[in-house]
Amino acid sequence: MNKYLFNTITGGILLVSFVVCLIFSSFINNAYAIDISRSETEKTSVATGRTFHNKDELLQLAGFPGENEKAVAAREIRVIPGGQSIGIKLNTFGVLVVGHHLVETAGGKQSPGEKAGIRVGDMITEINGKRIEKMQDISAFVQRAGQEAEPLQMTIRRNQKMVHTELQPLKDKNEQSFKIGLYIRDSASGIGTLTFVEPRSQKYGALGHVIADADTKKPIIVQGGEIVKSKVTSIEKGRNGNPGEKLAQFSTGQKKLGDIKRNSPYGIFGRLNEPLSDNLAKKSYPVALSHEVKEGPAKILTVINGEKVEWYDIEIVSTIPQKYPATKGMVLKVTDKRLLDKTGGIVQGMSGSPIIQNGKIIGAVTHVFVNDPTSGYGVHIEWMLNEAGISLTETEKSEAS
Predict the structure, then answer these.
(1) Domains along the sequence of the chain with CATH
(2) pLDDT, tens digit, for every residue of 5-46?
(3) What is the DSSP string of 256-312?
(4) Tens digit of pLDDT for each residue in 279-311?
(5) Which segment of the chain is annotated as a signal peptide (predicted)?
(6) CB–CB of 317/328 below 8 Å?
């Protein structure tokens, strides 16, 4: 099995270990965590010109019921917290364009794809009316069109719109084959952390944020995928200006834990094939809505060695009651000496680690602050549950069964 070193993208850090499967690569066996999006440290202030005399008044202004109101009270739903390190294998919807290259022809260097108006980030979905699902589907079309001097009829998905264009492959004078002048790929792999499992439906959520392509920086449109167990082999400790990372292993030969049906701003979602077998997976917890989260002590579940899920202490520094879904709902700080000694705080690959406070699951770890690896952001659990299709209120139709 080939091994590849993941290149780290500079800037803010989303805590998922993620790497693309290049055109000539097989799935990664030894996965190094990298960041896939930018993160920034933000300061939040409220200036309303009013003084709030009680908590109910503040909650009502935010669009939530007061504590004595039950109009939109959460129903009693329980989920099993995760914390397990997982390997992620994604298949894209079509073939993703990640770059242009020049074809050295007898008439000079040209890029047929660029000439056809195809852009980085475009998704090739059809050629000559035939659906394209993987890179191997393209080769036969390209060689035939080149030999017959007929342009390819390309259907491209671009920013939720379908675009049609013609592309004429050109012959590379050195390799004597026809090329389209595009760098493409159809899959990606990486590691992250499982957040929760709903025990009745076996629906799960993980990561807490979107998986974006490393080159285009755009969210990957998923057409299937799977999660498998992964094993943390070592930790690179985080320091100011240099967040750490989990190093973990998984392979294509491992048993599939579940599928991937959705890649959204709040994580990846799907169903497990069967219940998890470790001891922590036997106990379910109720969930807390965003306005129920308190500043103060909490705990996270995560793996820093092998496959063992352990509890670690954190502090909720600030939390924002949210009427509408948002990816950054709370600021947290690691206070557990064991975790600080081993990792320096929050590290890449920890994304999705569930947060538990007062006996309830309140959210998941998502970001680390580059200049302070002991601190980062978390997402509220209710938004992840919504994305998974799990109803939170009495008035909503339950999709968990």
Answers:
(1) 13-40+54-89+192-388 (2.40.10.10), 102-180 (2.30.42.10)
(2) 333 333 344 444 443 333 333 333 333 333 323 333 333 223
(3) EEEE--EEETTEEEEEBSS---SGGGG--EEB--GGG--SEEEEEEEESSBT-EEEE
(4) 566 789 999 999 999 999 999 999 999 999 999
(5) none
(6) no
